[in-house]
Structures are given as structure tokens and as C-alpha cells.
């Protein structure tokens, strides 16, 4: 097994993986071509836990399979530790994959499954035995060494699949929705365990999931994908708190979004009009006067007041209310017709609103996200 | 009550096929077994009774080579069929893509034509003045026609032709059932195509290969027409021994005894084989 290495992602050195303008079109005869992966460029640092997050069909698996070498890119380059591997088959790349379906060899024992990569590389038998034992220890499955995969539960098979990949000490480990088939409790356990394992081993993990919570809890950085395009790459805090893209804002957590128009721009401050309300917001984005954009606010960032005439507030009426234990959720219909959701702590004294009651919604300008509309999909 | 009634209904529904099976399979078999224990008068008539005469005669050294010969031909045919059938099955399962259905159909279509007609066509093809010799002499590749009919390779060609579909189908079924992710996993773990084949594809196709071998070996043991028509009937094997005993020598009890021994031999092989197959399948489950 790899020695325990210090875990700080090495963000200065050569990237573990680099994608340069990578495209994948499955049916090249179609016009226009349907891009499963559309001009993807990014760098993944050595030792990083990097996640591709996006809805089903957005191209995550295809991206991962191109890095592994199961699919070749229609255009673009893939570099592993600085070397162009675009033309190399999977068995000539120093990556290993944990498949969603586990793909354990049914005719081999657990031990032989884990030893497969070492046997193929003609690692001497004695060393092989030690490394297999260490890998099985790592996933706490040493006791099952002699069993057949069919005699194991899904979670146990998942562990064997991990051991089978990690025993080869790959420079990059690829995981495609590895916990997709596990029940929720086991899933949470495995998330913590795998994250901890990655921290200890210092191996670059590239992880694919459609589960935002999984992505947020495990990753160093997340690439949010939709329709073959990476919408935003940032650390979990950045993805959640500073979405720069309409898709990301809508995909991660709950978000109220309003169409807006830029009225005026001065020294990093823009004044926008949204739902008949003027707002002054700080931004670095390229937003000249007259341009359309979107403003986004989390339900918990909004507060309400009764009977306010402030013109920095959105006026509306309570349409429905939901009690969710610690909080209450209100759907507010704005005078201009848009719907907004507000989340209010029940501990607030006047948290209870009547249906039909008139309210004004406020959001601190620091919690309003200004998103450009250029890649609205 | 209800159960009893259901049993009766099941029995009634099964009755037509049961009657057929009894009439066409069980009774003839019993007749053959009964004949094998019967005696024989000097004119070739069957004398009903119980005697082990035929079996005693059968275990004379003279008959041993015939059994050995039959086993040899069956084993050789099995080897030839599997060696040639496996690559075909592999190609259809992995390389033919959307044409796989068509290829399987092409493999099976000739078998809608009567067996004897197809074997006669091979005689025409391989005859001294047959199509192949004609083409080869015509093209000036050979001066004298090659003798093909009556040779061992000709018998093997006939066997291959007869048993190829029964070889290819079970192997194809096993191969196409292999989860492609397993091959990707092998690739991912550093195995090139050849290594992945021997470590993953081949072991996983073994149940199909075993089934194919059984489907060739057992009928090949009793085959009659192919060695006679294409082999010139020179090497005596069980199939034509039985025919000779029944028709030429009119020794019906001895012919029946040979049949019974062959049946027992095949059954033993099948039972032994099925056990191995089951163990293999358990290992793969
Ligand atoms: N082998 C394939 N042949 C044709 N289309 C494919 C193939 N694999 C994936 N696709 C298409 O590419 C797109 C992206 O798929 P995929 O990468 O599997 O998405 P994800 O893993 O994000 O759910 C989808 O539209 C899918 O239908
Ligand atoms: Mg996928």
C-alpha cells in the first residue's frame, strides 16, 4: 500500500490531470453534433479530491471514462502528470477505476480480485500477498479474503472494489458514483471513510456524483456540469455561497432567482432592477448598463417585514406556508408575479405569517448573487 | 383437495406429450433393451428370453477397437468443433456489433435442409470429380484430383459442418453474457487484450465451452452417416457397427446390446459432465 502521505493538496506542482479542450461526440454523423462533453478544460492538482457534480446525462461518466482510457476524446488532449495520454488504452495509464457496479470478477476470490492488477504486472508472489493483505486491511475486509464476490453484500463488494484499485498505487483514482447502489446510512459511512482514506493516502481522487451533499462534504474542489459543459469550478464553500452561474445557483441547494436588468454601473457597483425593486450590488462581472442578468438569494438569507414601504424590498403576499420543524417555509407571490421562498427560524418571535398577509422581503446585498445570463440554459 | 385437483389438471395437460414420450422414446428404448437380452436362432430370428450371450460376445477383444475408435473420433470432432467454433462465437459476441443476429441466423439456416441432402452435397463437393477438384485442376493448381472422400480429414469436415451450430450457440451464449464492465476492469487493472482474454473472458466462457463439448461429443459417438458417406465407411465405429449388426448380419440382439452399452457410456459421460459443469457454474456465481 502507498505510505501515508501528508494530505495537503500540492497545488503548486504539476497537475495530476489536465484536460485541454476535450470534446466527446458519440454520434458523429448527427448534425449538429450532440456533445456529451463540450470543450472541457481544467486542471486537477496532485493529491486533490476533485468532484464532477451534475444531473444525470450531463457527461460526468463520459469525462471520467475518457480520463480512464475507456473512451477516446473526439477532440482535445488529456494529460496525466504532464504526459499526453490521449491515445493510450486504459491498461497503459496509471489510473484505476472504482466502477459503480463494482465489476468484481465473479470467478475469482476476493483475494484474487485484489491481486489481479499485481499479477498482471508480474509483481513477485510474496510481495503480492503482503500488498493484498494491506489493501484488504485498509478497507477492513481481510476476513473475507477467501470468499467469492457473490457471497458479499453490496457495501462489502464496494470495499473490495476500492481495495482492488488502491492496491496498484495509482497516481489517480477514478470513482463513478461509487455509492450509488448503497442505502443512505451506509452511503454516509462510506463517504466519511473514503474521504479519510484519500486524506491519508494523498492519492488524487476524481469523483463523480449527482448528489450535491455528497460532493459538498467530500470534495476539495467541485466542477458543476450540465449538458457537457463545466459551469463552475470552486471549493464547496465557494460553490454554495458564491455561485457565479445560473445553473450552479439553481442546482446546489434551494435558491430564489429573479430576472434583472442592469440600470447603471460605477466602480464595481451595479444598480439593477428586479421585480420592480432597485438594488445596488458589488460585482466584478462584466455587466454594462442595459444588460440582462439574474439575481439569486437563498431562502434562509431572506427576511420579511410587515407594512414596509422601503423600495429596496420586494413586496408580495403570503401564498402558502410549510412547517418543517426548526423552520417555516413561506411561498410569497410578489406583486410583479414571481414566486419567492423564505425560510424563517421558528425561534423568531413573529415568525408566523397568515396566508394572504402582505409582506416585504429583504436580503442583505452581500447575500444577493449576481449571475450573468450569457450561458442561461 | 385443491392440490389434488391441480395435480390432476397438470397431468391432463401433460398427457399428450407424456403419451408421445412414452410411445416414441420409452417403449422403443425398452424394446431395444429387451432385444439385447434375447437369444437368436440360426436364421437371424429373435428368440425371446433372457440371456447374456450378446453382452458376453460384445466384450470380446475384437469389439474393443471399435469402441476406442468411436471415442477417438468423437473426441477429435469435439476438439475440432470447439477450436473452430470458439473464435466464431467470440467474433459474433464481441466484434460483429449489430450484425450478430444475422450471423447467427446464417449459421443456423443450412440446418433447415435435410441432413442427408447436406451430406450428399459434401460428397459432390469433395468427390474425385467433384467441385473442389474441378476448380483446382481447372485453375491449374493441381494436375491430379486429390482424394478427399474416404479420408479422415473429410470425416472431420463433415463432423465440423454437422456440429458447428451446437458448438457455437452455447459458447456464444456464455460470451455474450459476460458483463463488459469486467473487461474494462481488466483493462483498467493493466491487462492488455490477450491477458484480459485468458484471465477473464475465457474462464467466464468455460461453462459454455463445457456445454458445447457435451453437445458435440455425445451425438458424435453415435454418428453414422458421416463416416460412411465421407469416410468411405472404412473405419468401423459404433454407429455403423450397429447398422451392420442389424441389417447385414441380422444379429439383432448383439446390435441392441451395442446400443445399450453406448447409451450407458453416454449417460455416464453426461452425468459426470453435468456435475463438473454445475461446480464450474457455482464457482462463477
Ligand atoms: N456509449 C454511448 N453511446 C452514445 N451516447 C452515449 C454513450 N454514453 C453516453 N452517451 C450520452 O452522452 C451523454 C452523457 O452521458 P454520461 O456521461 O453517461 O452522463 P452522466 O454520467 O453525467 O449521467 C448522455 O446524453 C448519454 O446519452
Ligand atoms: Mg454516469
UniProtKB/TrEMBL annotation, chain A:
<keyword id="KW-1278">Translocase</keyword>
<dbReference type="InterPro" id="IPR017871">
    <property type="entry name" value="ABC_transporter-like_CS"/>
</dbReference>
<keyword id="KW-0547">Nucleotide-binding</keyword>
<dbReference type="GO" id="GO:0015417">
    <property type="term" value="F:ABC-type polyamine transporter activity"/>
</dbReference>
<dbReference type="GO" id="GO:0015847">
    <property type="term" value="P:putrescine transport"/>
</dbReference>
<keyword id="KW-0472">Membrane</keyword>
<dbReference type="GO" id="GO:0043190">
    <property type="term" value="C:ATP-binding cassette (ABC) transporter complex"/>
</dbReference>
<dbReference type="GO" id="GO:0005524">
    <property type="term" value="F:ATP binding"/>
</dbReference>
<dbReference type="InterPro" id="IPR050093">
    <property type="entry name" value="ABC_SmlMolc_Importer"/>
</dbReference>
<keyword id="KW-0067">ATP-binding</keyword>
<comment type="function">
    <text>Part of the ABC transporter complex PotABCD involved in spermidine/putrescine import. Responsible for energy coupling to the transport system.</text>
</comment>
<dbReference type="Pfam" id="PF00005">
    <property type="entry name" value="ABC_tran"/>
</dbReference>
<dbReference type="GO" id="GO:0016887">
    <property type="term" value="F:ATP hydrolysis activity"/>
</dbReference>
<dbReference type="Pfam" id="PF08402">
    <property type="entry name" value="TOBE_2"/>
</dbReference>
<dbReference type="InterPro" id="IPR013611">
    <property type="entry name" value="Transp-assoc_OB_typ2"/>
</dbReference>
<comment type="subunit">
    <text>The complex is composed of two ATP-binding proteins (PotA), two transmembrane proteins (PotB and PotC) and a solute-binding protein (PotD).</text>
</comment>
<protein>
    <recommendedName>
        <fullName>Spermidine/putrescine import ATP-binding protein PotA</fullName>
        <ecNumber>7.6.2.11</ecNumber>
    </recommendedName>
</protein>
<dbReference type="InterPro" id="IPR027417">
    <property type="entry name" value="P-loop_NTPase"/>
</dbReference>
<dbReference type="InterPro" id="IPR003439">
    <property type="entry name" value="ABC_transporter-like_ATP-bd"/>
</dbReference>
<dbReference type="InterPro" id="IPR005893">
    <property type="entry name" value="PotA-like"/>
</dbReference>
<dbReference type="InterPro" id="IPR008995">
    <property type="entry name" value="Mo/tungstate-bd_C_term_dom"/>
</dbReference>
<keyword id="KW-0813">Transport</keyword>
UniProtKB/TrEMBL annotation, chain B:
<feature type="domain" description="ABC transmembrane type-1">
    <location>
        <begin position="67"/>
        <end position="273"/>
    </location>
</feature>
<protein>
    <submittedName>
        <fullName>ABC transporter permease</fullName>
    </submittedName>
</protein>
<dbReference type="GO" id="GO:0055085">
    <property type="term" value="P:transmembrane transport"/>
</dbReference>
<feature type="transmembrane region" description="Helical">
    <location>
        <begin position="224"/>
        <end position="247"/>
    </location>
</feature>
<feature type="transmembrane region" description="Helical">
    <location>
        <begin position="73"/>
        <end position="94"/>
    </location>
</feature>
<dbReference type="InterPro" id="IPR035906">
    <property type="entry name" value="MetI-like_sf"/>
</dbReference>
<dbReference type="InterPro" id="IPR000515">
    <property type="entry name" value="MetI-like"/>
</dbReference>
<keyword id="KW-1003">Cell membrane</keyword>
<feature type="transmembrane region" description="Helical">
    <location>
        <begin position="12"/>
        <end position="38"/>
    </location>
</feature>
<feature type="transmembrane region" description="Helical">
    <location>
        <begin position="101"/>
        <end position="119"/>
    </location>
</feature>
<keyword id="KW-0812">Transmembrane</keyword>
<feature type="transmembrane region" description="Helical">
    <location>
        <begin position="196"/>
        <end position="218"/>
    </location>
</feature>
<dbReference type="Pfam" id="PF00528">
    <property type="entry name" value="BPD_transp_1"/>
</dbReference>
<comment type="similarity">
    <text>Belongs to the binding-protein-dependent transport system permease family. CysTW subfamily.</text>
</comment>
<keyword id="KW-0813">Transport</keyword>
<keyword id="KW-0472">Membrane</keyword>
<feature type="transmembrane region" description="Helical">
    <location>
        <begin position="254"/>
        <end position="274"/>
    </location>
</feature>
<feature type="transmembrane region" description="Helical">
    <location>
        <begin position="154"/>
        <end position="175"/>
    </location>
</feature>
<keyword id="KW-1133">Transmembrane helix</keyword>
<dbReference type="GO" id="GO:0005886">
    <property type="term" value="C:plasma membrane"/>
</dbReference>
Amino acid at each position: 500500500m502507498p505510505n501515508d502521505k501528508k494530505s495537503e493538496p500540492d497545488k503548486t506542482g504539476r497537475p495530476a490531470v489536465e484536460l485541454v479542450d476535450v470534446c466527446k461526440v458519440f454520434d458523429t454523423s448527427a448534425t449538429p453534433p450532440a456533445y456529451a462533453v463540450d470543450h472541457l478544460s481544467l486542471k486537477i492538482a496532485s493529491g486533490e479530491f476533485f468532484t464532477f457534480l451534475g444531473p444525470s446525462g450531463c457527461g460526468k461518466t463520459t469525462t471520467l471514462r475518457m480520463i480512464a482510457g475507456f473512451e477516446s476524446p473526439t477532440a482535445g488532449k488529456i494529460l496525466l502528470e504532464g504526459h499526453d495520454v490521449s491515445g493510450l488504452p486504459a491498461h497503459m495509464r496509471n489510473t484505476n477505476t472504482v466502477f459503480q457496479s463494482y465489476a468484481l470478477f465473479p470467478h475469482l476470490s476476493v483475494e484474487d480480485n485484489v491481486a489481479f492488477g499485481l499479477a498482471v504486472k508480474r509483481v513477485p508472489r510474496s510481495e503480492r500477498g503482503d500488498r493484498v493483505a494491506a489493501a484488504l486491511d485498509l478497507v477492513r475486509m481481510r476476513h473475507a479474503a477467501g470468499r467469492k464476490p457473490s457471497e458479499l453484500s453490496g457495501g462489502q463488494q464496494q470495499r473490495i472494489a476500492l481495495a482492488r484499485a488502491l492496491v496498484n498505487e495509482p497516481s489517480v483514482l477514478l470513482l463513478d458514483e461509487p455509492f450509488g447502489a448503497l442505502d443512505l446510512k451506509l452511503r454516509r459511512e462510506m463517504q466519511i471513510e473514503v474521504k479519510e482514506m484519500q486524506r491519508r493516502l494523498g492519492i488524487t481522487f476524481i469523483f463523480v456524483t449527482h448528489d450535491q451533499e455528497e460532493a459538498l462534504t467530500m470534495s476539495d474542489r467541485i466542477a458543476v456540469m450540465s449538458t457537457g459543459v463545466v459551469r463552475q469550478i470552486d471549493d464547496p464553500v465557494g460553490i454554495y455561497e458564491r455561485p457565479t452561474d445560473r445553473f450552479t445557483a439553481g442546482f446546489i441547494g434551494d435558491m430564489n432567482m429573479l430576472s434583472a436588468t442592469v440600470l447603471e454601473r460605477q466602480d464595481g457597483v451595479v444598480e439593477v432592477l428586479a421585480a420592480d425593486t432597485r438594488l445596488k450590488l458589488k460585482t466584478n462581472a462584466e455587466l454594462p448598463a442595459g444588460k440582462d442578468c439574474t439575481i439569486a438569494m437563498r431562502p434562509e438569507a431572506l427576511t420579511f417585514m410587515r407594512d414596509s414601504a422601503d423600495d429596496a424590498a420586494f413586496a408580495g403576499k403570503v401564498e402558502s406556508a410549510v412547517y418543517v420543524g426548526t423552520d417555516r417555509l413561506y411561498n410569497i407571490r410578489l406583486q410583479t408575479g414571481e414566486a419567492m421562498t423564505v425560510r424563517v427560524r421558528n425561534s423568531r418571535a413573529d415568525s408566523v405569517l397568515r396566508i394572504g398577509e402582505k409582506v416585504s422581503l429583504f436580503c442583505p446585498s452581500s447575500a444577493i448573487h449576481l449571475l450573468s445570463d450569457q450561458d442561461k440554459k | 383437495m385443491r392440490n389434488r385437483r391441480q395435480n390432476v389438471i397438470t397431468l391432463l395437460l401433460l398427457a399428450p406429450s407424456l403419451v408421445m414420450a412414452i410411445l416414441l422414446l420409452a417403449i422403443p428404448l425398452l424394446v431395444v433393451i429387451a432385444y439385447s437380452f434375447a437369444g437368436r436362432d440360426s436364421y437371424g430370428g429373435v428368440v425371446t428370453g433372457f440371456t447374456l450371450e450378446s453382452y458376453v460376445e460384445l466384450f470380446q477383444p475384437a469389439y474393443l477397437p471399435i469402441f476406442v475408435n468411436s471415442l477417438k473420433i468423437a473426441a477429435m470432432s469435439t476438439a475440432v468443433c470447439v477450436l473452430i467454433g470458439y473464435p466464431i462465437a467470440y467474433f459474433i459476441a464481441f466484434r460483429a456489433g449489430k450484425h450478430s443476429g444475422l450471423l447467427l441466423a446464417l449459421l443456423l439456416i443450412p440446418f433447415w435442409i435435410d441432413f442427408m441432402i447436406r451430406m450428399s452435397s459434401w460428397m459432390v463437393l469433395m468427390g474425385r470429380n467433384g467441385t473442389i477438384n474441378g476448380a483446382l485442376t481447372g485453375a491449374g493448381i493441381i494436375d491430379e484430383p486429390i482424394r478427399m472422400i474416404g479420408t479422415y480429414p473429410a470425416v472431420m469436415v463433415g463432423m465440423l459442418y454437422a456440429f458447428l451450430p451446437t458448438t457455437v450457440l452455447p459458447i456464444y451464449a456464455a460470451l455474450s453474457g459476460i458483463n463488459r464492465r469486467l473487461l474494462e476492469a481488466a483493462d483498467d487493472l493493466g491487462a492488455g487484450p490477450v491477458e484480459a482474454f485468458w484471465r477473464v473472458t475465457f474462464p467466464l466462457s468455460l461453462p459454455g465451452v463445457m456445454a458445447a463439448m457435451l453437445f458435440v461429443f455425445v451425438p458424435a459417438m453415435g454418428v453414422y452417416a458421416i463416416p460412411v458417406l465421407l469416410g468411405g465407411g472404412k473405419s468401423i465405429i459404433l454407429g455403423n457397427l450397429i447398422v451392420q449388426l442389424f441389417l447385414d448380419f441380422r444379429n439383432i440382439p448383439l446390435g441392441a446390446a451395442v446400443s445399450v452399452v453406448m447409451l450407458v457410456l453416454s449417460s455416464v459421460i453426461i452425468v459426470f459432465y453435468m456435475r463438473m459443469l454445475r461446480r464450474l457454474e457455482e464457482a462463477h456465481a
